């Protein structure tokens, strides 16, 4: 009776090829079960990868926008916190200055001057704060602190106003120092004249967080605080009317700064709301895209687990057969 057979070497080759195929299939199925996605995307999509490419591009863009929105949130939250701190200082100093009006030249005035010096230092420190690893108020120079040390600023300002014959001249000198081309602009401010570019946070939205430390709002705030702080140097000692006139001007400046800070915090608050909504929307869109992606190339976990079990049975059967064949010997049957 005719029959066909293969030699030992060929049998080994066939066995190895079957082992490689089953092992590879088991590895592929394990990956699909772990990731939930088919490894052979081309087969799953019948060779049409265009829609998957477009989908993954959208997912990548959304991931970048989500990251940018979260960074913008940190930056905006830090900005709001610093503006709030500065406004608290302005309001507290303004209140103390008003209450001191009946005690110029006494202990009450000294307490107000000390409070102004502390407020100036803390305000400068707040303006030099960072958020998301960047300085908040330096314009495009986010790696550079916007202002010099508070003591250095006050020292230069004290020298600039020294010798003013009266309160009017003193106040004019302070205005000039913080005005265009003054010492604050040319020496104290170390950021750029360019605002920070608006931050894109979604497909069609951006937020502007470009407030700089050399803005009119911050100049007026520092000027109002500095007028009182500079009285510690003995300016107009023996001239209580002049000192009171300086404090009165400072009170007016602090009220204006308070109103300006309220408006700016409102702007930042609106930006925070926009960012929060963008973060939520980006997350929803990402979820929708992920679900669409899974519907195209997702691997059914039950089906995959069943195929793994079947492949394991086949592989074990192959191992069993290989072991049995290896023990066959003609001498055992003679």
From TrEMBL:
InterPro entries documented for this protein: Flagellin, Flagellin_C, Flagellin_N
Limits of the Flagellin N-terminal domain: 11-142
Domain named Flagellin C-terminal: residues: 256-334
Cell compartment(s), UniProt: Secreted; Bacterial flagellum
Keyword tags: Bacterial flagellum, Cell projection, Cilium, Flagellum, Secreted
GO MF annotation terms: structural molecule activity
Family matches, as SUPFAM superfamilies: Phase 1 flagellin
Main location: secreted
Signal peptide: none
Record's function text: Flagellin is the subunit protein which polymerizes to form the filaments of bacterial flagella.
Family listed: Belongs to the bacterial flagellin family.
This protein's name: Flagellin
